[in-house]
């Protein structure tokens, strides 16, 4: 599950109290991976696994899936008020479908000194939320691929690098082929507290072989 460094060293996650607690949570199980790009797979995983997540940018990527997924609401949800900052307790209490643990390197993902680039964070959110939708599709044995139709991110605090970033994502509603997902990112501060850095909401559209469908 854990991608190791090219020098053969062990992944750093056990050194982080928050990551260790999440990995020991029996409510979650290992779930796939963000594969490194393989030419034999064509363009699958090409951007995240081959371009974005490298040994110098995001050397460690861990994915956990909730053992028992909760059925999402069957009605379109209200999008969060852009003027109200959510609390970490409120969002983490959603019982995330997917938890992603990322080791972010510096200067590999830096936009400013010791600060992660916002575009990199957006890609990490998109990948994590996509994993949540995919988990629900596999749970119900449905075919079709989820595509991002809308993604809204709020940056509350800078994400420090190098450091560990935790992203939790949950499918909160579904109507037909539309999936609404909420996600939150956090980091563990020096004094041990977990602090909200970023949150996001997204709409995913399930498509079949043709990608010509419209919302």
UniProtKB/TrEMBL annotation:
InterPro entries in UniProt: HotDog_dom_sf, PTE-AB_protein, Thioestr_dom
UniProt-listed SUPFAM superfamilies: Thioesterase/thiol ester dehydrase-isomerase
Family matches, as Pfam families: 4HBT
The organism's place on the tree of life at top rank: Eukaryota
Coiled-coil ranges per UniProt: none
All copies of domain Thioesterase, residue ranges: 115-181
Stated name of the protein: Acyl-coenzyme A thioesterase THEM4
């Amino acid at each position: 599950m854990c991608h190791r460094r090219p020098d053969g060293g062990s992944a750093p996650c056990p050194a982080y109290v928050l990551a260790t607690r999440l990995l020991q949570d029996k409510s979650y199980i290992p779930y796939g991976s963000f594969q490194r790009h393989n030419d034999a797979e064509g363009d699958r995983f090409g951007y995240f696994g081959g371009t974005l997540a490298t040994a110098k940018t995001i050397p460690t990527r861990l994915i956990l899936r909730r053992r028992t997924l909760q059925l999402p609401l069957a009605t379109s949800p209200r999008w969060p008020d852009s003027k109200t900052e959510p609390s970490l307790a409120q969002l983490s209490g959603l019982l995330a479908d997917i938890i992603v643990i990322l080791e972010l390197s510096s200067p590999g993902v830096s936009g400013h000194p010791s600060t992660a680039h916002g575009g990199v964070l957006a890609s990490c959110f998109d990948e994590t939320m996509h994993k949540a939708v995919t988990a629900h599709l596999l749970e119900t044995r449905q075919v079709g691929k989820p595509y991002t139709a809308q993604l809204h991110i709020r940056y509350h605090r800078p994400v420090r690098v190098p450091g560990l970033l935790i992203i939790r994502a949950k499918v909160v509603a579904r109507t037909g082929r539309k999936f609404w997902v909420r996600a939150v990112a956090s980091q563990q501060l020096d004094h041990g507290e977990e602090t909200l850095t970023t949150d996001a909401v997204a709409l995913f559209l399930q498509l079949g072989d043709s990608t010509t469908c419209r919302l």
